[in-house]
Amino acid sequence: MLSGKPLVSIISAGMSKFQKHEGLLAREIFTLAIQEAFARCPRLEPKRDVKAMFIGHMGEAYEHQGHMGAILADWSGLLGIPATRCEAACGSSGAALRTGVYAVLSGLADVVIVGGVEKMTNRTTAEVTEYLAMASDYPFEQYHGITFPGLFALMASRHMHDYGTQEEHFAMAAVKNHYHASLNPKAHMQKEITLETVMQSRYVAWPLKLYDCSLVTDGASCVILTKPELALKYTDNPVHIIGSGQASDSIGLYERKTVTSLTSTKTAAKTAYEMAQLSPIDVDLAEVHDCFTSAELIAYEDLGFCKPGESGKLLEDNQTRLGGRIPVNTSGGLKAKGHPVGATGTAQAYEMYLQLTGQAERCQVKDAKIGLTHNVGGSGATAVVHIYRSTQ
C-alpha cells in the first residue's frame, strides 16, 4: 500500500563507520558522512544548492565543544549558510530531521542538510555515564545516583512483572541485532553472539546485562532533503518522508502514569501514521531506539507492531529478524551498530535511505516500500517518529 503525500524527499545520505575514531575530532568524523552524501548525489552543487544545515549534537562535555552547527558548516565547505545545532539528548538528530522538514515545508530553503555527530570514546565509562545522565531529571534522578541503565532497568522489571516478559526475551533482541550488525560494514560490533553469551554476561542493572546495553561509539550521519517536486532534479531515486511526529513527556520517570510504555512514542507515532495515512500493518521495516534491549520490546508495542505484553512473542517467532514479517534494526540498531548519541536519529534515516533505494546489500529487506524510524531522547521525554516511502 502506497499512501500519504510526500512532505520532503531525501536525495542523498551519508554515514561514517561507527567505531572508536582514535585521534579524530567530531568535526572530522562528520566530514566522512558529508563526503559520502555529496558523492552519492553528483548533480548537487553544495555551495550553490544547500541553503541551511541542522545538526543533532547532544553534549558539549565530550569534547568541551559547543556551537557545533557553525563548526560543521565550515568543515563541510558550506561556510556562510545558516547552521543550527538541535539538542534533544539521544533524540537530537531525530529532532534535527523534523526541523529540516519544517524548513523545507516553510519554503525558506529548497535544499537542507540534516545530520548528527558525537565523539564519546575519548571519555571514560564513568564520564560518559555522567554526561548521558544529564538527560534525566537532575534534582530527582541524577542527584540520587540513578543512571540510564537503572532507569531502563526499572522499565524492564515492571514489564516483566506486568506481562511475564523474561530476561531471555531481552537477550533475543540482542542476538538478533548482533546478527544484523554482522552484515553491516559500518556497524561497530560486527560479530554474532549467542543467547548464552547474553545470559551469562554480568548484570549492569538487573535485569539488564552487559549485552543488553548499547555501545559507547563515535560516529556521524546525515541526509540531504529537498522539496518533492525538485527531487528528480538531483537524483533518479529519491525517498519520500510522508509522516513526521514528535512529542514530549515528563522528564522524570517517577512522574509518568506508566513505565511500561512511552507516551511520547505513542503520541509521535499517532501523528506520523495519520500524516502518512498508514497504520502499523503497512510498515515493511523499522529502525527503533534500542539503547537497551528492553527499549526495543517496548517500542514494538508503542509503535503498534503488537499488543502490549506481546513483544517477546515477536522475537520468539523471529518476526523482527531479516526475513520476518517486520524486520527491525536491520542496521544492527543502537545495540550493535553503536550509539553515538547525536548521530543516531539520522543514522536511522540513512538506513531507510539505503533500504528503500535497494542499496542495503546484505541487510536488504526484500521489496521494502514503507519504513519507519523511532528516535528517543532521555528515558522518553522526547520521541520522534518518521515514516518513509520508496519511489522505486
The gist of it:
This protein is of the alpha/beta class and 392 residues long. It is built from 14 helices and eleven strands.
> Number of folding domains?
1
Mean pLDDT value: 97
The largest sheet, given as strand count, sense and whether it forms a barrel, is: 9 strands, mixed
What is the fourth-level CATH superfamily? Thiolase/Chalcone synthase
Helical residues, percent: 25-40%
- How many DSSP H or I helices? 14
- What is the C-alpha radius of gyration, as a whole number of Å? 19 Å
- Helix and strand pattern: EHHEHEHEHHHHEEEHEHEHHHHEE
Strand residues, percent: 15-25%
From the 3D structure, determine the CATH topology. Peroxisomal Thiolase, Chain A, domain 1
Question: Shape, please?
Answer: globular
By secondary-structure content and strand pairing, the structural class works out as alpha/beta
How many runs of DSSP E, i.e. beta strands?
11
In terms of per-residue confidence, which ranges show pLDDT below 50 for 5 or more consecutive residues? none
Sequence of strands across the biggest β-sheet: 3-2-4-7-1-8-11-10-9
Distance linking N and C termini? 13 Å
- CATH secondary-structure class: Alpha Beta
